[in-house]
Amino acid sequence: MVRYVYAFTEGGRDMADLLGGKGANLAEMTRMGLPVPPGFTVTTEACRAFLTTGSEPEGLIREISGHLTALEQAAGRRLGQPDDPLLLSVRSGARFSMPGMMETILDIGLNDESVLGLAKSSGDERFAWDSYRRLLQMFGSTVMGVDGALFENAMARLKEARGAVDDLGLNAMDLSGLVEAYKGLIRHETGEYFPQSPAEQLRRAVLAVFESWDGERARIYRRREHISDDLGTAVNVQTMVFGNLGPDSGSGVAFTRDPATGHRGLYGDYLPNAQGEDVVAGIRNTVGLEQLRHLNPEAYVQLRDHMGLLETHYRDLCDIEFTIERGRLWMLQTRVGKRTAEAAFTIAAGLIDEELITPDEGLARVGGEGLARLMFPRFDTDAVGPALAHGIPASPGAAVGAVVFDSAEAVRRAATGEKVILVRQETTPDDLPGMVAAQAVLTSRGGKTSHAAVVARGMGKVCVCGAEDISVDPQKRRFSVGDTTVEEGTVISVDGSEGAVHPGAAPLVDSAVMRYFETGEGSAGVVDAVARAMHHADRVRRLGVRANADTPQDAARARRFGAEGIGLCRTEHMFLGDRRQLVEAMILARTDAERERALDALLPLQRQDFAGILEAMDGLPVTIRLLDPPLHEFLPDRTELAVRIAAAEAHGLPVGAHDAELLDAVNRMHEENPMLGLRGVRLGLVAPGLVAMQVRAIAEAVAERRRAGGDPRAEIMVPLIDTVEELRLVRQEVEQVLAEVSKATGVPVECPVGTMIELPRAALTAGRIAEEAAFFSFGTNDLTQTTWGFSRDDVEAAFFSAYLDKGIFKVSPFETIDRDGVGRLVGIAVAEGRAARPDLKIGVCGEHGGDPESVHFFHAAGLDYVSCSPFRVPVARLEAGRAALPEAEAGDSR
After folding, report:
1. For this structure, is 751 an active site residue?
2. Radius of gyration for the chain, computed over Cα atoms and rounded to the nearest angstrom
3. What is the pTM of this model?
């Protein structure tokens, strides 16, 4: 018999898969002896069973009833008891934190009768009616499907009528009337009455939390965070404690370190006379935890001690929710807190210094995506004028965009390529699509623990919260600061590091982390933390990291960033610009002599390019790919040429001989699908002299560098191989040219010859190809296109967004390696290639080489190196180190 319910006293943090993160941590805190309101957890298995069948699993309600009876016996009160009711909270709790994405229902057990008992037992009539209206609002919207805006509008009308700034300005009679209004709304909108049975409230609330796993905002968040749709959520049922019982009560959220910077200390928000949802919703501005020290010194000291205990126990930044009920502290939740990239590196370094974690564990807790964010530019604070407004720096970074005031508009504009800033009084979970689409989030309310702050930090979005000087008017689609009005569409700059908002597009400068990689300068703060993580990653990684670079300048930058060579030098980039005319001459050549003259003119230019790159990478391997794209790419556009000639003829003007010749060549070379046509090795085999010219340029550059005392290590890579015979023929030509140059210069020139594996047939026949190849390099961009049957330039805009929405893709296969398809071909090629040639060197040179998740795959597949763009080299180095950690250390760092 499957068991679906566990008391908090029965679990622990090692049961997160079953109990969800929140339930497992509530159980852990209970075992630690912290003051946790009693409760129980309905497992993720129950959720998955419900979502599969559409009905509650057999025996679930019986188990819940049994645990409820135990709670009632321990409390000496019954759920919904008329004279002194036991009330419950029902909260979601998935395996991975999804703040605000699923549902919560508080005050389960209140009805028309028990609200009077609560008023009497608490001695506070206003509190009782406030709790009942909260239940109606949450239950009505979450369980019964009433539009939440209807409840908010009714509250807003009442506050306006009473002249109240916030809900604290409403008295018991006001709230009693609001309860009746809410019940009328529910009846009108759903056709049914709010259920008065506490047991029915509990049952429907649990099932509603299950259903919220498949809600739109939860699905969007999981896609964004790459969380599996199959996990399901647990449900935590807990005895209510109340922060809205007067000035000696309140609720708060606290962090054991600053989640924005990683600095040590107690950080967080506290809201007197409020329940927890008031804090994270940002509907009233909070006070800092230091204020709690004065409001309730005893509770403050207890909270500080509990936080220290939890950080030591979890050995990480802890995010804690708490409530103070008439002076008594209750711990409602803890979890390993979400943090910015800056905080992640700083916290890891700090915990290593404090000997709470090992360097391996510290490396496992940072990641390449975070490092990339730290390399983004920042605003030049010396060059910007006075700020338009200031708020709380909730998530650092620099963002420029047009102001929008709702999620739908943010999504619409972003879809057209416009960069936007989402401005709200406060965000709610329904704003998630807009937060994903926006460059930054700016709110006039809330603090570092508000919904906007927590979600933005988790997504790496720039965020400034609690900018109180800003008055947001979403109806008129504008905000104002003093006498300044900012209309929708106006460009502003949001500085998440300083908490500042500037008009217009503020100038940018490189980040301190980028300067460190460029110059080696900087040793303080996050730069030091990054440097330490990089040093440890380089010490433990097995994978080499090279760069894709086509110029001496790119090669030099890549070397400064830590590249150990060039994994892809694309020679076609050397044929552009002023040299295009020489390529045209080669293509238009009618005789061997004309073709040789064009190639002879290209030879010294290519030799110069190769010499510069080999000098920049002296002593390190430089893998040079022979010409890959079809030759028509070096000619003018076919349609433009035809239109130009037709226009000339229509006006009776003479048609230039050169244009006519070009059009004839373009027509001769036209292909319906040129990326699957005459390119790569095929072009080298049918265009006389092309391979020889390029190899001669490489060989002469090597000889020149050796005569100058250098240590050039050129490797020649043949693209688009389908069969071993193609490689054998090209290799013979390469070796003949190398021998000729060696003889002519008197300098021995030996360059390993290898191939790109970028076609499925090459991967499937890798054993035979390895007989002629000194190395393999996977061109995963083309391998992905040819495996999936995608033309990347055509399909990404056409239907990838729909595939992501429908769950066909978890992530674009061009962004992260498709392990099941393309990855399997890689595995076959590695195994068969090494079986034929045990010393075969294998790398990857597609942009997957700089993608964090893909780097882990390539490590596991046994590759020798990854190669990526110069700016992604530090990311690849870091992830290669993380990939080499023991599995226990390098687990999910979300």
Report:
1. no
2. 33
3. 0.82
Q: How far apart are CA 358 and CA 342, in angstroms?
A: 19
Reduced to 3 states (helix: H, G, I; strand: E, B; else coil), residue 626 is coil
- 518 near 556, Cβ under 8 Å? no
Report the alpha-carbon angle 151-153-154, nearest 5: 65
Cα-based distances in Å from 442 to 254, 389, 499, 844: 21, 11, 10, 41
Please give the span between the terminal C-alpha atoms of the chain, in angstroms, as a whole number: 33
Mean pLDDT of 617-635: 83
3-state secondary structure 44-112: HHHHHHHHHHCCCCCCHHHHHHHHHHHHHHHHCCCECCCCCCECEEEEEEECCCCCCCCCEEEEECCCC
Q: Give yes or no for a contact between 107 and 240, defined as CB atoms under 8 angstroms apart.
A: yes
The rounded distance, in Å, linking the Cα atoms of 338 and 455 is: 9
Is residue 451 part of the annotated active site? The answer reads yes
* Bridge partners of residue 843, in order along the sequence: 777, 865
Q: Please, what is the angle between helix 148-162 and helix 172-190, to 10°?
A: 150
Q: Which residue has the higher pLDDT, 645 or 129?
A: 129
CA distance 636 to 639: 9
State whether residue 750 is helix, strand or coil.
Answer: coil
pLDDT score recorded for residue 458: 67
Contact (CB, 8 A) for 634 and 575:
yes
Number of neighbours of residue 788 by Cβ within 10 angstroms: 15
> In one letter, which amino acid is 880?
A
Contacts of 486 (CB under 8 A, 6+ apart): 388, 403, 478, 479, 480, 492, 503
- A 10 A CB-CB count for 596 gives 15
Q: How is residue 407 annotated by DSSP?
A: H
**H helix or E strand, kind and range, residue 841:** strand 841-844
SS3 33: coil
Within a 10 A sphere around the Cβ of 58, how many other Cβ atoms? Answer: 12
Neighbours of 618 (CB within 10 A): 15
Q: Which of 47, 67, 318, 451 is catalytic?
A: 451
What is the residue type of 323? Answer: T
Q: Which of 845, 848, 859, 868 is catalytic?
A: 845
Measured CA distances, 484 to 160, 425, 496, 502 (Å): 26, 17, 21, 12
Q: Residue 642 carries which side chain, given as an amino acid letter?
A: A
98 neighbors 222 (Cβ within 8 angstroms):
yes
**pLDDT mean over 783-801:** 82
Amino acid letter for position 144: M
Tell me how far apart the alpha carbons of residues 284 and 449 are, in angstroms, rounded to a whole number.
12
Segment 856-883, tens digit of pLDDT: 999 999 999 999 988 889 999 999 999 9
Question: What six digits make up the tokens of 536?
Answer: 């440890």
The side-by-side arrangement of strands in the sheet containing 420-424 is 389-390, 500-503, 491-495, 398-404, 420-424, 440-443, 462-465, 392-395
Print burial letters for 562-586: b (CB count within 10 Å at least 16), e (below 16).
bbbbbbbbbbbebbeeebeebbbbb
Q: Tell me if residue 643 falls in helix, strand or coil.
A: helix
Name, in order, each residue with C-beta under 8 angstroms of 746's C-beta and a sequence gap of 6 or more: none
The β-bridge relationship of strands 621-625 and 378-379 is unpaired
Backbone phi, then psi, for 442, in 5-degree steps?
-130, 125
**Predicted confidence (pLDDT) at residue 891 exceeds the cutoff of 60:** no
What sign results for the dihedral spanned by CA atoms 338, 344, 350, 353? Answer: positive
Q: Give the whole-angstrom CA distance, residue 304 versus residue 326.
A: 18
Residue 214: CB partners within 8 Å, gap ≥ 6?
51
